[in-house]
Structures are given as structure tokens and as C-alpha cells.
Amino acid sequence: QLAGLAVIAFGLWLRFGGVMADFASDKKSPEYFYMGLYVLVGAGALMTTVGFFGCCGAARESQCLIGAFFACLLVIFAAEVTAGVFAFIGKKVAIQEAQKIYEDVYDDYMKNPGGKVNSTIYHYHLALQCCGKDNMEQQTGLPCPENIQKASNCLVEIQNVIDANLHLVGIVGIAIAGITIFGMIFSMVLCCAIRNTRDMI
């Protein structure tokens, strides 16, 4: 249950509290990346629910509930492995989607520097601590944060941010997979202990 709640909190933080949340402020958003986070939150909710029923099965010493708990953990484990492989395979697509969003905003700004997109592109520059698609573009009048010591390429920064976030997701996924394996082992041990106790009675 605690692991499930931790996964939910982590997924929601990446979606609404991290740097990637800034890309949802526009009409477009990197759906491929966010879809993976929604799957992560869903898995966390499922883990929390399954953990509750596992506690009930252990408290009532029900082999049926504990067996169902084991089966659910096995499904969750398979889903985690699949999601992890899917995330790393789809990393390139997620990066391209996020970069395309920035490039569209950049092109809109170049067409109309004084329009509404001015605040949008500044928002991206502030979140990513970058300026433009080229290190020399700060001189063209782009709205860039004043505290940037060295203007960096925003497309490169987007790639770095997604790489870092996916590594975090991978680490959390491996940790939760380990907890899931221990849960399956202990549930089988408990189920066998209950069976042996009833046979002795």
C-alpha cells in the first residue's frame, strides 16, 4: 500500500510539479510522455488497492484472498516490466514531441514577437533555463531570463530533462518491481503456512 501511494505521488509530481508540467500550459503537450505517467499513477492506485485486499487476506488467514493477491502482484509485475520497456523504447518519440512543441512556439514568436506567445516562450525559457534553438540566438531579441549566465540550446535542454525524468521513472520502477517480487514470495510463504497449520489441526 505504501509503495502504491509513493508511486501515485511520484507520478503526479512529474506530471504537475516537475519541469515537464510546464509543457502542459500550452494547447499542445507531449502526450506520449504523459501517457506513461498516467499508466504509472494507475499502477500505483492498483497496487494500493491490491495491498489492502492482501492485508485483509492475511488478517483473515484466507488462502483464496492471498492467492488472489499473489496473482494480482504477478500481473502488476508484468505490467511494470512492459511499461519500463515501453518507456525506454519510446524515449526518442517523447523527446521529439516536446521539441516540436517548443519549435512551434518559437516559430509563432518569430512571426509575431509582440503577441501572446511572448509570455509562453519566456515561460519555457525560464523553466528550462535556456534561450532559443541556438547559443547565439539570445542576441536576436528573444525573451530570455536575465539570470542566465550562458544561453544554452533549448532543444538540448528538453532532451536532458526528459532523459533525467525517464531515469527517475526507471529507478522507481525497478524499486517497485523488487518490492512486488518480495510481496509475491511472502504471500506464497504465508499461504503455505496457513495450509500447514490447517492440516495440523
UniProtKB/TrEMBL annotation:
Keyword ATP-binding listed: no
Cellular component GO terms, alphabetical: plasma membrane
Gene3D superfamilies reported for this sequence: Tetraspanin (1.10.1450.10)
PANTHER family: TETRASPANIN (PTHR19282), TETRASPANIN-2 (PTHR19282:SF155)
Lineage top rank: taxon: Eukaryota
InterPro entries tied to this protein: Tetraspanin/Peripherin, Tetraspanin_animals, Tetraspanin_EC2_sf
Protein name listed in UniProt: Tetraspanin
Signal peptide range in chain numbering: 1-21
